[in-house]
Amino acid sequence: MSQLDLDQLRTFAAVADAGSLTAAAPRVFLSQSSVSEQIRKLEERAGQVLLRRGKTGVVLTPAGVRLLDYARRILALAEQAQREMRGLALEGDLRLGITDYFRPNEISPLLARLKLTYPGLRLRVEIAKSDLVRAAYARGELDVAVAMRVTEAGASDAAADPAWVLRREPLVWLAGEGVDLGVAGDPEVFAAGGGTSGPDASGAGASDVDMSAASLPLLCLTESCSLRQYTEGVLRRAGVAYGVAHVTTGVAGLQMALAAGLGVACLNRGAMSDGIVPWRGAGALPALGMAVFEALPPRAGEDARAGQVRDAVVAHFR
After folding, report:
1. What is the pTM of this model?
2. Of 202, 206, 218, 305, which sits most exposed with the smallest number of CB within 10 A?
């Protein structure tokens, strides 16, 4: 096998991430035909077919899956070597904040990649609600931050900066799998006159017991949570009667309450976990918007470490 080429490996990784040659082209600043040529040359060097092309995109072959793992490690080491030769090796502490709505199973690979790329960096990771992450970043208590923002159903996202958006996910009405809430799917159950029918609770695991049986049992985070504010807003505007049935301080607690069958919650699709499914009565509820996950933009005067790690975070999720 001929020596592997870094540019071809970089293009191959971009195609694997983007799902097609066409989508990968702008990521590596090449034309679609140039991307195709680089993949062809890489397959010749590897002596293996790496991609299967179809109408909906590309699929990695078993050989492609194996090479992709090597490609990511080779590219990360090449980036690290280049930075060290330029005197930009990162050392010291870096404080990284991530919203707890982000997919938990995707945070570990990110941290592993950062450790591989910057072995001298000591990460201090904080997982918290988006409003707390944003506030801590604004106070200078975090160096790099990933937060969630909600957009209205059908609305354009004028606030988005494409340079920092990591992904968009639909918001979904969720409930416990196989749970019968007694209000399944009948719009007449949710009589007009939306709003809570019991005093709101603010502590972790607190529950409103004085809630009408004819109202939607809503599970949510504390009042400062932007997603809770959005959820209650869409229910009120639609005239849906609801009661806050359970309040928790974190997404993990919300997932446990859903799985236990305590009610319905609005969450991003990526926050679904075992025992949680789209609620079968969601047709009676208003349409939901999108959750936008983004790296918070650079601040004036930040050091090289923050900028490089932020760029690495963005690159990892694209």
Report:
1. 0.65
2. 202
